Amino acid sequence: MITSAGQLDELTSVFVPKHAQLSGDIQALIPLADDLESLTTKAAELPGKSSTVNASTRDVSTIAGPLPDLIAAVTAHSDRAAPTVGGLSTAVESVTTQLQSIEQNLGAVQSAVGELGPRSSAIASTLANIEEEARHVQVFGPLLALIGPPVNSLNLPPLGVPASGTTP
Fold it and tell me: Is the pTM for the entire model greater than 0.85?
């Protein structure tokens, strides 16, 4: 109970700042109360979304279940393949070395055959002469086949008959 105006003034001086602070605090709580309503609505959606997340997590877990065994199998295959890959690498190196050698030999053959190019006409002419001369003695082929081996076994010196176009 208030017994005097002084006492009322004293109580008012205490309540006025508290009232001002309470009024300010209430003003700050109004947006929070609005946000709290929205937050409550969102919180109501959480159980359904949480069930969806749990189901998705179970699906991922189920799908990922075989991965450790598959990774182990791939690792084992890789370990077994390493010597084969090493052997393959060695074989490829050997083939490469052989191909390089063939290339060098082909270069030497090309160089040697290249020297024959300017003389190809003379070589063709000589071969044509040999072919023509062979046609002349072709009829004696069966006879030479019969007497050739016994005569050759006598080891007789050459007759000294010059070949056509050459001297002894």
Answer: no
Q: What is the pLDDT of residues 13-33, one digit of tens each?
A: 888 888 888 888 888 777 777
pLDDT digits (tens, 9 = 90+) for 90-101: 999 999 999 999
pLDDT tens figures, 117-159: 778 888 889 999 999 988 888 888 888 889 889 888 888 887 7
Alpha-carbon Rg of the chain, whole angstroms? 57
Contact 132, 138 (CB under 8 A): no
Q: What does the alpha-carbon distance between residue 101 and residue 107 come to, in Å, rounded to a whole number?
A: 10
DSSP labels, 90-104? HHHHHHHHHHHHHHH
Full DSSP string of 9-68: HHHHHHHHHHHHHHHHHHHHHHHHHHHHHHHHHHHHHHHHHHHHHHHHHHHHHHHHTTHH
Distances (CA, A) of 114 to 4, 101, 104, 105, 145: 138, 20, 15, 14, 38
The Cβ-side half-sphere exposure at 71, using a 13 Å CA radius, reads 5
